[in-house]
Amino acid sequence: MANRTCDVVVIGGGPGGYVCSIRLGQLKQKVICVEKEEVGGVCLNWGCVPSKALIAASHTYEKVKDHGATMGIMSKGLEVDSNKMQDWKAGIVKKLTGGVRGLFKGNGVELVMGNARVTGPRTVEVKNAEGAVETITATKAIVIATGSSTIEIPTFKFDGKQVIGAREAVSLREVPKRLLVIGGGVIGLELGMVYQKLGSDLTVVEATGSLLPGVDPECTAVVEKKLVKNGAKVIKNAMAKGYEKNADGSLAVKVEMGPHVSVGTGQAGGGKFDTIVTDVVLVAVGMRPNGGGLGLEEIGVKVERGFVPADIVGRTNVDGIYAIGDVSGMPMLAHKASKEGEVVAEVIAGHKAAKDWVSIPAAIFTDPEIATAGLTEAQAKERGIEVRVGKFPFAALGRAMAVNETEGFFKVVADKKTNELLGVHIVGPEASDLISEGALALEMHAFLEDLGMTIHPHPTLGEGMMEAAMSGLGHAIHILNRGAPPLTS
Ligand code: NAI
Q: Considering only CA atoms, which residue is closest to atom 44 of ligand 1?
């Protein structure tokens, strides 16, 4: 194969790498993006996008099945066709990955399919599926955007059918009768709830004392309550140790209970073992960064536990080598990867840019959704900041009633002295969309007054943000605030 030269080689075509490549192309750089599986990476192909399609489908099904009659929508013979659902989902993925390929073409980005290895500060070797090898020289920079991979538990080796990871879980063509999820984190709850809605009997085994560790516990409590109300067993402070296959093909999973066992199990706990019988186990205990095995250490690039640390402009410790996305550090979120990709593209093209954002919002697509930006109440207090908290329930919003989804609340955290907004936490319908207003407010260093005095259209769910801010100031109209001080005080 002919050897080639370009300005920049981007290794990895996920939301970090493809965005970086496109921006570099827009900036008239000669870019080659190397991808070993499919452009779009985990997010577009096996993660964010397919899971959201399944979440939407299962939510629609549940809404019609369980709540349709409340709204006067009577359904008969409602059923799930998993094959059709999967085909629909696959169509969305195909459109999006096709879109990325189109954007590459339009911006002059060359896509090379193959496995890349860095062989020098400016050289990359690519081996394609047929085993052919070519060397690409990048005159300006190499960008590492190799993402992360699912962590496997040694006693739960993936078999693709009964012991699976998120990648297989978004492609099931049959709804498991019983599903046991190991790990009550983001993936475990998002996909666990999908199959719960589609009919699976769900058990969640979580090692720590709370689901979604790190998320505002008041928000998590709303989701946990709904999980359990819908029949799930949630076992916290518990570790899945291993499994045996029963004669009928089901799996007997051995779980070690911790010192304290929580809701839904009816068990007292106390360091004992229990066996849970299931048909499918979904392992969702986190992701591991893909910084190893790329040849980076050999040329002096620092790699720490799989991460390739990068500074505020995305540079690693070796000149000309940059890292973005999951592989460069936490949080492992697609939108953080994309923004880092844009920053690094600007820097490589000689412009001023930096990762100087105030917050990286996060959206968790459980039912109801949770979305957060900025500090939680606990984090602000840990930093010695005296806080003012404003809360407003979805149940008090006309629009929430009109869409028949009234669980959850808005919570704003502000500095008590100045009223500057420090964090926004939403649990409820469309939280993932509503959080962007909070993220913008944080980016603009807004005060509670800015959020509360901005006119929000009626009737919308967004009014909850305004009311929560006003509640922080003691002024919210649609919850009791008798004796509230004047707005100008
Ligand atoms: P996670 O870190 O969110 O959750 C893993 C959970 O597993 C934790 O609660 C942990 O305590 C628990 N755990 C670990 N070992 C265990 C064991 N042996 N037994 C029982 N529980 C155990 O990881 P997850 O859910 O796999 O997600 C991976 C990454 O993907 C995360 O970094 C997340 O940010 C990202 N992601 C983000 C999404 C979003 O933003 N909506 C959606 C899906 C994934």
A: 187
Residue 458 a catalytic site member:
yes
Q: How far is CA 348 from the centre of its chain?
A: 28
Ligand 1 contacts CB of residue 180 (under 6 A): no
Share of the chain above pLDDT 90, in %: 93
Is the Cβ atom of 205 under 6 angstroms away from ligand 1? yes
- pLDDT tens for each residue of 35-80: 999 999 999 999 999 999 999 999 999 999 999 999 999 999 999 9
What's the CA-to-centroid distance between 193 and ligand 1, angstroms?
A: 14
pLDDT for 259 equals 64
Determine the distance separating the centroid of ligand 1 and the alpha carbon of 3, expressed in angstroms.
41
Q: How far apart are CA 169 and CA 192, in angstroms?
A: 9
Question: CA 257 to CA 242: how far, in whole Å?
Answer: 13
With b for 16 or more beta-carbon neighbours within 10 A and e for fewer, the 290-318 pattern comes to bbbebbbeebebebeebbbbbeebbbbeb
First to last CA, the chain: 73
Task: Report how far residue 37's alpha carbon sits from residue 94's, in angstroms, rounded to the nearest whole number.
Answer: 14
CB 139 within 8 A of CB 122: yes
DSSP β-ladder status, 273-278 and 4-11: unpaired
Task: Copy the structure tokens of residue 341.
Answer: 């990709």
What is the DSSP pairing of strand 4-11 with strand 133-144?
parallel
CB-ligand 1 contact for 286 (6 Å cutoff): yes
Domains and CATH numbers, the chain: 4-150+288-348 (3.50.50.60), 154-283 (3.50.50.60), 362-473 (3.30.390.30)
Is the distance from CB of 167 to CB of 154 less than 8 angstroms?
no
| CA separation for the pair 407, 241 (Å, rounded) | 35
Model-wide pTM > 0.90: yes
Q: What is the pLDDT of residues 438-448, one digit of tens each?
A: 999 999 999 99
For 18, the token pair is: 């493809």
